[in-house]
Every structure is written in C-alpha cells, then in structure tokens.
Amino acid sequence: MAGQPEHNKDAEVTLKLAEEQIALTKQKVVDGHVRVTRSTTEHDEVISTLLQQEKVETERVAKAQRVESIPEIREENGVLIVPVVEEEIEIVRKLVLKEEIHIRKVQETAPFQEVVTRRKQQVKIERDDDR
C-alpha cells in the first residue's frame, strides 16, 4: 500500500477513548412567601376597687389616781392604753397616774377608680404560595 506508514506489528497502539463528564449545579427556587404583620392596639379600661386604710385616733383620758408602780402598757377592747406617770413629792413619794393615752385603730373603706391604658398585640400571618 502506497502512502501509508508502515506499521510495526509488535508496536503498541494507543487509542483515545471518549469520556462523558457530569456537571451538577444547584439553584434556589422561591416557591412562596410568608408575611407576618404585628400591630398594637390601645384601649382605655376602667378599673375599680376598694382601698382600705388605717388611721389612728388618740384620746387623752385624764386620771388623778395614785398607783404603787408604773402600770404596764395594755390593750382593752381593741384600744391600746399607754399610761403616763408623774412623780409627786410629798413627805412620802407616791406615783400618781396622770392620764392614759387611748389609741384606737379605725378602718375606712373608700372607693377608688382610675382609667388605665392597656396595650395588646395581634399577629397576622399571610402565606403567598407561587406553586
């Protein structure tokens, strides 16, 4: 054969083979949206209650009573009694109960009302699906 190179039967022949390759790519696809709406409302609300308070009434009760020793502070019928003693000098020293302080607790109930503002939040969730 003319024009063709001679082949050596003992020579190795290298053949190039075709090879397939795979290319993988990722893509984000948005298929829906979520919308969250938060709102705050205010409204006036009337609150009512009864408040209790204590006050103290004092009364001076005159006494001109001789005593041998200083009387103790005592309570009688819900009244706290605080003795006040003074020494009088005579030929013989004696204690004279001059007065007692009577302390009484008096409870009063008075209506109380005030307008306060309360806040309250609401949440609205909407979903848009593009599918």
For the structure shown, list the relevant keywords.
131 residues, mainly beta, 4 strands, 0% helix, elongated
Protein model, in words:
There is one protein chain. The protein is mainly β and 131 residues long. It has one domain. Helices cover 0% and strands 65% of the residues. The chain is built from no helices and 4 strands. It has strands spanning 32-67, 74-76, 79-88, 94-129. A hairpin with a 5-residue loop joins strand 3 (79-88) and strand 4.
Short description:
With 131 residues, the protein is mainly β. The chain has strands spanning 32-67, 74-76, 79-88, 94-129.
**What's the rounded overall pLDDT mean?**
85
Query: Over all CA atoms, what is the radius of gyration?
Result: 53 Å
What is the SS-derived class? mainly beta
Measured as a percent range, the helix fraction is under 10%
H/E series, N to C?
EEEE
* Order of adjacent strands in the largest pleated sheet: 1-4-3-2
Largest sheet: 4 strands, antiparallel
Strand content: over 45%
List low-pLDDT spans.
Answer: none
Give the total of domains.
1
Determine the number of helices (DSSP H or I, runs of at least 4 residues): 0
Cα-to-Cα separation, first versus last residue: 69 Å
The strand count comes to 4
Give the overall shape, derived from the CA principal axes: elongated
